[in-house]
Model the fold of this input.
Amino acid sequence: MPISRIQKFEDGSILGLWQISETIDDLIPLAILTHDELEQLYKFKSATRQLHWLAWRALIHRIAPSSPFSLIYDNNGKPFPNDYSFQLSVSHSGNWASCLINPTHPVGLDIEAIQERVLKVKERFLSSEELEYFLSLGNDPLIFTILWSTKEAVFKYIGRKGIDIRQQIKIEPFSPHVSHTFYVNIRDNSNHNRLMLNWENIDDKYLIVYTR
Done:
């Protein structure tokens, strides 16, 4: 089983990373599906979608507490265990799937492919202040993929719709070529929260960003 990594952090979070090489039939028994979930699986027309969906479920059963649970979704489409034993964030891209859990507080993560096209849409997810600073480091697809992935991870951490990712999620200045740990300020109505995140390459084509 190609689990690439299971990492435990001091705050109780557990990060799992799975490099998918199995077939759909290989993953079905590992994902421990309910009858309803099995029916849902076959509604996905894309084989890639089925593999991603199965892989992160198989992974969550490897890293989560051993008490039995099933996965359900809240009104915003975010998955969580029916026994509320932990909070969860999932992501997948290419042949990678990942899960991040914590027993007490929200988490967020995102996997992205490093691609040039992110440079064409950077104005859609970055504020003018963020653009000014990070463009000073160079028009680098790696940097702007990290920034996009950060906005996605924090959006999942917040866990609800209606967030303006340009103005309410602000990435503090840092150099990705120097540091893999950085901070984000969340301005959600009257609340102001400062959140620490990490980024890293998981191979030469994909990176992951996750909350700490």
